[in-house]
Amino acid sequence: MVQIRPVRVFAAALLALVTSAHITLKDIDSLKSITKDCNEKIRALRSSHNANPAQAVILNDQISKDEIEDVVAGSLTYLDGELLSLLNIPVKDITIEKPDCPEVVKHCHVFLQATTRFLQAIDEKQQEFRWDTDSSIYNALGWMQSLWASRSANEQHLSFIEQQMRLYKASSCFNNVNDVLRQDVEVVEYLNDLMDTF
């Protein structure tokens, strides 16, 4: 899988200012809730190997390495599927009438924080189990990375970062929309770094 580096993401986001966004504030809020649920599901997993993944066995409420991999990959795939379905909606003009700017800014930051915490939960499991590039988790991370950063990952040929930029720019709630872009790029960088551990 080819990884898209942040410089390309930044350039792509700045160059594609012609098309309007179709991701809404409600969509971002929905993705935040899904991300939090997936994060909780992963953090609730308990392994039974006492810091030695080679000794993993199933014990009562504790589960095996393969089962943990299935839950992590399933959570990622579910979130990726939800994001893809939003990105495939035909593009339309976006209007936000009299937005509650403190709420818009808060939702943006809470969503990005939830995404980072979700990736941290996956990172912790990866450090524990050391899956490789054959893992379904690796493939799901690659899909998430392409949805966030690549125009070719959906039917509308706009990355999730570009969609967010248009949404937040249309809200006029941010003094500097590039701060949101920077935080989005940090998410993609984290995804790249996480994929490098496989």
Overview of the molecule:
The protein has about 200 residues and is mostly helical. The chain has one domain (about 5-90, about 100-195). About 65% of the residues lie in helices and about 0% in strands. The chain has 7 helices and no strands. The chain starts with 5 loop residues before the first helix and ends with a helix. Residues about 1-20 and about 55-60 have low confidence and may be disordered.
Write the layout of secondary structure elements.
Layout: H1 6-15, H2 25-43, H3 65-87, H4 101-129, H5 136-149, H6 160-171, H7 177-196
In short:
By secondary structure, the chain is mainly alpha-helical.
Keywords summarizing the entry:
about 65% helix; disordered N terminus; mainly alpha; about 200 residues
Q: Strand fraction band? A: under 5%
Q: Would you list the SSEs in sequence order as H and E?
A: HHHHHHH
Structural class: mainly alpha
Helices, by number, come to 7
Distance between the termini: 12 Å
**Unreliable sequence segments:** 1-21, 56-61
